[in-house]
Amino acid sequence: MKTEIPTTPLGPGKGPKEVEVENPAGFMGFMAGRYDSRMERNVSMAARNLGDGVQKIVMAAKGKQGTSGEWKAELLKLLGADNDKSEIDVLLENSACEKFVLRCIENELPPNLIHCLRLLRVMELQHANEAHERGESNPNPIGESATIKVSKLLCKLCKDPSVGEQLRPHLFGLLALSGASYPQSGIHVAKASS
User: Fold this and answer.
1) How does pLDDT run across 1-18, given as a tens digit for each residue?
2) What is the per-residue pLDDT for 23?
3) Quick check: 171 and 159 in contact, CB under 8 A?
4) Which of 4, 87, 122, 185 has a Cα at 20 to 30 A from 112?
């Protein structure tokens, strides 16, 4: 492999030289392996954190922990709706990882993403009701960017047939979401569910 390596001039008219550079055996493979393991570690940690976060929010939304409105802000924060980098962003960025789907399945991420869609629907319904009580006729959606991220991630995962088995018990809930009624500000959740 020929590479131009700049050297210091040794005299007038002497500039960069072309020299033969040997690639140590396996160097690039070693670097790629380190990169893959880092990606896999990022995916595993993000999937675990996202799944755990969703479970805490599900419990809070059921009224078993925290205040009733607190879970909505936590959900939007967890899903990166505030444009801060979130666990779901890390997963989307590292979806090219060789073991991406496996790590997500191990952390039960696909069913938790369906829980996210259900929570986003409830949040948009409550937001529309609160806006109606304030006299607003057409409120803006509050979870649209979060819904888009959940939909992208769920679509990436569902392209792999191994995800189907884990989602089987949750398919009825997902199908019910696509046929449920929504306020105008929650149509994005219906689209993501279908």
Assistant:
1) 444 444 444 444 444 444
2) 47
3) no
4) 185
